[in-house]
Amino acid sequence: MVAALHDPLGFRRGPAMANRMVLAPLTNLQSHDDGTLSDDEFAWLVKRAAGGFGLVMTCAASVHPLGKGFPGQLGVHNDAHLPGLARLAAALRAGGALSSVQLQHSGMRAPQALIGAQPVGVVDDPERGVRGLSTAEVEQAVEDFIVAALRAERAGFDGVEIHGAHGYLPCQFLDVRRNQRHDKYGGSADNRARLLIEIIAGVRASARPDFQIGVRLSPERYGVDLGESRALAARILAGGQVDYLDMSCWDAFKQPEDPAWAGRALIDWFTDLPRHGTRLGIAGKLTDARSARECLTRGADFVLIGRGAILHHDFARRVGQDADFASVALPVGRAHLAREGLGEKFIDYMATWQGFVADGQDAR
Fold first, then answer.
1. What is the mean pLDDT of residues 343-349?
2. Per-residue pLDDT tens for 213-225?
């Protein structure tokens, strides 16, 4: 029997989620430049808990100063970040949602002007001004993720999600084309996945027994081979150390970009994998009740809502009230987004998305 979007969902560890809808980790540019939580980011996230999401996840939070990828990025790499994080964790719990910090390192994608130093990555890349990490530095990066996770635990969050997708540092190591390292972190598929697997194992060994761990993967793009991604997903699902796997598909129902994998929607290459008690979530242009339900019909345990949650803070509640609910049509006015709890910097960022914001349009 297919679960409904408002059925509760238990995990291997920690508390159950009240429903099957998660606020996706969304870049929003609205925290302070030192990584401390701003009132705007606090309000944006807490409003989604009040809007009925079962789990509210922060934006990608940097685990190291060199890993900062964009201005106004939330940080979790310094104890100075703890007061704001603790305030947020308490408010999300009071709002009825589970809470998670997404742990992220931008690697070679960190802008030099932003971090004030040379970006680091898998290998030297003179054209991009990137310095390759030594083996010892990769091992330190593993430790940086672990320490950041423990900081989130101290702040009172229910768990963390390790960002292994979208071309950020762990995903850069998975890159078939770029990762030609000759140490234990390069070359073979197992070696390229080693950074991510060591982060998972380190967080699991160091955090309390009921601390929840999620992992986000990209099924394709960024040099990721779909076959390897499917095999890595199967390995993580079977490993027993992770509570949920979050597949970031961009468009859940699209055909794979690699013609060798054509014939099935992208989601279907992952929902058929054995779970072994690990939950599987799907993200990818889910802006209405129908598409969210379709993910569960195809075998997902939960869905992650991005654009729909930007447009409607109470998307999760509305889906429960109206089986045909669909997000408001784009573009929307800045006033609409302000009413939905986005701060000015977040609205400015959304205005860079083609066709999302109509300046001067206040009606919606």
1. 97
2. 999 999 999 999 9
Q: What is the mean pLDDT of residues 95-118?
A: 98
Contact status, residue 295 vs residue 267, Cβ threshold 8 Å? yes
The number of folded domains in the chain is 1
1, pLDDT greater than 90 = no
Tell me if 363 is assigned to some domain. no
Q: E strands of 144-240, at which residues?
A: 159-164, 212-217
CB atoms within 10 A of CB 286: 28
**Rounded Cα–Cα distance for residues 144 and 137 (Å):** 10
CATH number at residue 252: 3.20.20.70
In a domain, 226, yes or no: yes
Tell if the pTM clears 0.90, that is, is over it. yes
Q: Distance between CA atoms of 31 and 211, rounded to whole angstroms?
A: 25
pLDDT in tens, 109-126: 999 999 999 999 999 999
The H or E element containing residue 132 is strand 131-132
* Nearest-angstrom CA–CA distance, 117 and 182: 25
Residues with a catalytic annotation lie at 168
Question: Domain containing 302: what range?
Answer: 21-327
In a domain, 156, yes or no: yes
**Residue 355 included in any domain:** no
